[in-house]
């Protein structure tokens, strides 16, 4: 049975149209590494345990995400290390990620030539990590070229002090389609002690939008037309009442789940 809210508002990650979807995984090594090994890769909740290849180390992982609206995203991830070094350390790292994604097309007017559309996000929630591990949030922008995601030209943006700014290159008067991923990442970076752990449980809300011209001067007047019909303004996005209800329901479910685990 599909987890409640996990993919109620989804579409294919390759769809050349406005879409909300989720992607969760647990893997050993980077995604681009020829030796990458996935313990889990799915649009739905992802949890279990897996042994790092060639070692006596085991990672217990969990990842989930909810795309609640265009610019309203929730993601969770955790990794816990157990085992010992009797067979040596693993040669790379383990990464567990929950990502919520929105895909939209933006037609920006108010300038000429090229420029940059900047979305500001507030990021709230919790992260934790022990030595040798990392728990954090991260954004990634993937352009859509010829109706397909161009992963070779994706760009990552970090979260610092509860804020993140995502920059999208644009040409004024020409639609620009991208996917914006919001990740909660939990990673085991070194293989030292049983009990190493990392987690991230985060919500991101798009709360500002600005446009700069080719000289990086900020425009005082501009407009953004979106294929999804979402109203992107200088104050970000304002969720519809139904989306607000989904946000509250998701938060209630998360709290209830934690209470059950604690009891």
Q: Could you give the topology of this structure?
A:
Blueprint: E1 19-28, E2 37-42, E3 46-51, E4 56-69, E5 72-84, E6 94-109, E7 114-129, E8 133-145, E9 148-149, E10 155-158, E11 163-171, E12 176-188, E13 197-213, E14 223-226, H1 241-262
Antiparallel strand pairs: 1-2, 1-6, 3-4, 4-5, 5-13, 6-12, 6-14, 7-11, 7-13, 8-9, 8-10, 8-12
Which short descriptors sum up this protein?
single chain, 263 residues, mainly beta, eight-stranded antiparallel β-sheet, 1 helix, 8% helix, 54% strand, elongated
Explain the overall architecture.
The chain is mainly beta. Helices cover 8% and strands 54% of the residues. The chain has one domain. It contains 1 helix and 14 strands, in the order ββββββββββββββα. Strands 1, 2, 6, 8, 9, 10, 12 and 14 form an 8-stranded antiparallel beta sheet that branches. Strands 3-4-5-13-7-11 form a 6-stranded antiparallel beta sheet, covered by helices on one side. The chain is elongated, with a radius of gyration of 19 Å.
How many domains? The number is: 1
Uncertain regions spanning at least 5 consecutive residues:
1-15, 242-246, 250-263
Percent of residues in helical segments? Answer: under 10%
Distance between the termini: 25 Å
Number of helices: 1
Radius of gyration: 19 Å
**What integer is the average pLDDT?**
88
The proportion of strand residues reads over 45%
> Which structural class do the helices and strands define?
mainly beta
Count of extended strands: 14
Query: Largest sheet, if any?
Result: 8 strands, antiparallel
Short description:
This protein has 263 residues and is mainly β.
């Amino acid at each position: 049975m599909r987890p409640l809210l996990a993919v109620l508002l989804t579409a294919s990650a390759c769809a050349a149209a406005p879409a909300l979807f989720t992607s969760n995984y647990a893997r050993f090594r980077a995604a681009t590494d020829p030796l990458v090994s996935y313990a889990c890769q799915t649009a739905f909740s992802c949890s279990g345990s897996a042994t790092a290849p060639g070692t006596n180390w085991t990672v217990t992982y969990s990842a989930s995400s909810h795309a609640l609206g265009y610019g309203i995203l929730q993601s969770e991830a955790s990794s816990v290390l157990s085992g010992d070094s009797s067979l040596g350390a693993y040669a790379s790292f383990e990464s567990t990620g929950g990502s919520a994604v929105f895909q939209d097309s933006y037609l920006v007017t108010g300038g000429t030539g090229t420029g940059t559309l900047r979305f500001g996000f507030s990021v709230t929630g919790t992260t934790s990590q022990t030595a040798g591990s990392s728990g954090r949030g991260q954004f990634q922008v993937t352009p859509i070229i010829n109706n397909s995601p161009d992963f070779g030209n994706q760009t990552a943006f970090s979260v610092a002090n509860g804020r993140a700014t995502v920059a999208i290159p644009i040409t004024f008067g020409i639609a620009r389609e991208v996917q914006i991923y919001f990740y909660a990442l939990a990673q085991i970076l070194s293989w030292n002690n049983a009990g190493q752990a990392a987690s991230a449980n985060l919500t991101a809300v798009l709360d500002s939008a600005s446009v700069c011209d080719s000289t990086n001067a900020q425009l005082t007047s501009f407009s953004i037309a979106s294929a999804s019909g979402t109203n992107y303004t200088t104050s970000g996005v304002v969720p519809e009442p139904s989306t607000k209800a989904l946000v509250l329901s998701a938060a209630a479910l998360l709290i209830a789940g934690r209470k059950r685990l604690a009891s």
